[in-house]
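User: Can you help me understand a structure? I only have the sequence.
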Amino acid sequence: MFINLTRPVTKPFLAPFSTTPISKAQKNLVGLSLEQLTKDFLGLGVEGFRAKQVFSWVYKKGVTCFDKMHSLGLPLRTLLNNEYFIDYGLVTKEQKSVDGTRKWLVNYSGQTIESVFIPESKRGTLCVSSQVGCTLSCKFCHTGTQPVMRNLKPAEIVGQILLAKNILSDFVGEDKLVSNIVF
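Assistant: Let's start by predicting it. Here is the structure, written out as tokens:
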């Protein structure tokens, strides 16, 4: 049995999971590899080691606001705010089951997919979508109820993982909730 935790699409709910691009020239930092980020930084005149610091803030600590990356100087944080944004996707609906399973409908460019976290006694499985739509047509999964429309971009797949870890507060502490990721 799922409890419907539909949350309205409002800034207070979205703020922890994405920053809003201020121009079309900005690039989503989510989904970039360390190598891509280093190359970008060097092109902007930023030391390559800074890419590793930002990468750690985003992927290991789950920070979604450049201004909270305290090991970076103000000029670099300002540059990052001008050149990049961080977008995990837009959660339009959340459901939680009595067994702790959580489902999120996530919107990417007007198309919706589903991510599911399934807690078990010895592991936590995160099921992420790799496509909008699915050929398996599983009735319990929103993605499976749609015909295949397109493959998701790397940022959209990685964004689901970061989104779940952020919602579950799984970036902090020794014991991680998400131990298994399936597509």
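Now, to help you interpret it: Residues 154-167 form the longest helix (14 residues). Confidence is low (pLDDT under 50) at residues 1-16. Let me know which part you'd like to focus on.
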